[in-house]
Amino acid sequence: MMPLIIKDEYPEKLFREDGKRLDGRSEKELRPIKMEVGVIQNADGSAYLEWGNNKIYAAVYGPREVHPHHLAKPDRGVLRVFYRMATFSVFDRKRPAPGRREKEISMIVADCIEPVLFLELYPGTSFEVFIEVMDADGGTRCASTTVAALALADAGIPMKSLVSAVAVGKIDGKKVVDLSGIEDKAGEADLPIAITWYNEEVSLLQFDGDMDLSEMNEFLIDAKEALEKIHKIQLDVLKRKYLKLQEETKNEEEKEGKKGDD
Ligand code: UDP
Beta strand 54-65 with 45-51: parallel, antiparallel or unpaired? Predict the structure, then answer.
């Protein structure tokens, strides 16, 4: 397992002698990703994501009454996202109260996802997405966007498409995909990108670091390739859920049919 961030102890080199990254990945390789839906019984929809060392839950409620009431909009629904990092999710105990970074990431995730919802069809209501990062190791805003979109789909909320996100960047002068925590801190550039699949538009593009503008196109090409892999995992998880439901309904119907015959 890749070492987690330990404050002020960044390695000098982010590539090993054998040319691999510290966690053994090649430049364009994603960390292992595992997703599940329907993991929280008390939510309308939910999802869980393990992405490398990141472990993140998302729970969705809505459409429902807006609290506090003054946030309600008469002509459309509102999407509210609450991104939180557990106190134990990082090496140096995170303060339990939500900080500026958490508020900013909540806003970013909401902005990334809002374009795929039909909020105009739900006046006066809210959709709320609660994101809990249990373990953090770089790229949690991208992972949170990805798992939040999946939880909304699990809740059966009409969506134009899913949203996927990934960070690309530069470490030791080389372009890489899906930066880990150490790579994010010790590398030269970090570029989180989200895509709304129904129109293939970029709904998030942030940039932190040092990079030549002429490299942008290559970053986008690498990101698109990675995003397609992430999207496929999201779709596969949802497909599995519906196949299971279909199977259960069929079994129920067969049972009912048998009872009718008796
Ligand atoms: N991090 C941390 N303590 C904090 C906030 C972040 O150790 O209070 C770590 C965590 O692993 C996070 C990484 O730094 O994933 C990068 O944080 P950043 O703010 O760049 O957001 P992210 O890459 O998670 O979207």
Answer: antiparallel
